[in-house]
């Protein structure tokens, strides 16, 4: 849908799990898909907590938690095909879980052990982009490649409200529109960019409105409503596959935790604001929706809790048990064929290490 001035986000599940009267999108997903979306959100929440704990225990250098953003991430990723390309920023655990990337691989990245842990070629997920906004350009490049190869794949750039202020994001959005590429810009507006509120990033009526200036459809969606996120992404992906070009989606959500494990958000935001959003937690809301449809019971909770516990244990084991990689990986995986400079650097490092041994 093209925005026409209204900024009311698309919402398919009300705050208490009731179906809204939103009828522009398909809500009749198969029961298994509806249940799977919930499972992915709950698993993400548990793994997110475990990653946080692992950092606190000194096992990871840093971690950027996604608590509160599970609906946006899982909803957006769940409607994609495995052949679609993902270009994350750095907070997209829910997207990785949906794509089947083991949380241990994500942990390896935050441990500084293996920066390619998201398996670009096998899982079609680019490495974390700590330089915010840069991944949007990579996504557009990949979409241009898909266009030239006549693939019907879609690429998704996951960026934050803060990243929309970066020149790279502007260039990417404009390029995507001009070349009509199959790229979706999924902006998680979680209200904050570290300690800077979204009011300091954007004074347009919404981030979605900016799509008008680029000449692409813009959609604002309730980012704490997994079904609505799924629906608007499915629509945008369908448009990409039909040659209809890019879409800018703004998912209204909230980062319930700190920016990263080194941040203290109590220094810059009020507890009342956090409480307001905690009461809009996407997970219980979606659970109520499933219960209303008779699609979820307490026995399902028990099964899901066991699954989450197992996945957290696997994550912990993989972090603690896996040996550090060979330092030469730094040189071996830069180019398909090492350049003379890299070969020389590799030789020099080998000599240094031999001295120390
Ligand atoms: C190019 C660049 N400039 C500055 C930073 C420092 N930085 C790290 S995260 C961040 C804010 C990101 O905010 P947002 O895009 O809203 O994502 P969120 O952290 O809310 O998920 C900034 C400015 C960076 N990583 N990269
Ligand atoms: Mg943000």
UniProtKB/TrEMBL annotation:
Signal peptide: none annotated. Its cofactor is thiamine diphosphate; Mg(2+). Keywords: Oxidoreductase, Pyruvate, Thiamine pyrophosphate. Pfam families: E1_dh. Residues 38-326 form the Dehydrogenase E1 component domain. SUPFAM superfamilies: Thiamin diphosphate-binding fold (THDP-binding). The keyword Protein biosynthesis does not apply. This is Pyruvate dehydrogenase (Acetyl-transferring) E1 component subunit alpha.
């Amino acid at each position: 849908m093209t925005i026409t001035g209204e900024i009311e986000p698309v919402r398919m599940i009300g705050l208490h799990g009731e179906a809204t009267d939103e009828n522009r999108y398909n809500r009749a997903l198969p029961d298994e898909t509806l249940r799977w979306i919930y499972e992915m959100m709950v698993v993400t929440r548990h793994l997110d907590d475990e990653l946080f704990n692992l950092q606190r225990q000194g096992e990871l250098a840093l971690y950027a938690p996604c608590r509160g953003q599970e609906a946006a991430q899982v909803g957006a990723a769940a409607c994609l095909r495995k052949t679609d390309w993902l270009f994350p920023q750095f907070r997209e655990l829910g997207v990785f879980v949906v794509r089947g990337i083991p949380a241990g691989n994500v942990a390896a990245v935050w441990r500084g052990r293996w920066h390619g842990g998201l398996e670009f070629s096998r899982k079609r997920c680019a490495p974390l982009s700590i330089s915010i906004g840069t991944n949007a350009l990579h996504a557009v490049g990949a979409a241009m490649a898909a266009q030239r190869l006549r693939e019907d794949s879609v690429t998704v750039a996951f960026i934050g409200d803060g990243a929309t202020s970066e020149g790279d994001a502007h260039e990417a959005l404009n390029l995507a529109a001009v070349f009509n590429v199959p790229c979706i810009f999924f902006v998680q507006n979680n209200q904050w960019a570290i300690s800077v509120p979204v009011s300091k990033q954007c004074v347009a009526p919404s981030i979605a409105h900016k799509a008008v200036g680029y000449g692409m459809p813009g959609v604002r969606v309730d980012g704490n409503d997994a079904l609505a996120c799924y629906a608007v992404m499915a629509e945008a992906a369908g448009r990409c596959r039909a040659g209809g070009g890019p879409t800018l989606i703004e998912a209204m959500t909230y980062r319930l935790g700190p920016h990263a494990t080194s941040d203290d958000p109590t220094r810059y935001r009020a507890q009342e604001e956090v409480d307001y959003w905690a009461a809009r937690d996407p997970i219980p809301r979606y659970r109520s929706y499933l219960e209303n449809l008779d699609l979820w019971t307490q026995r399902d909770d028990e099964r899901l809790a066991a699954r989450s516990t197992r996945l957290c244990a696997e994550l912990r084991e993989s972090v603690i048990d896996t040996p550090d990689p060979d330092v030469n990986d730094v040189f071996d995986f830069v180019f398909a064929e090492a350049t003379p400079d890299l070969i020389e650097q590799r030789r020099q490092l080998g000599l240094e290490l031999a001295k120390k041994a």
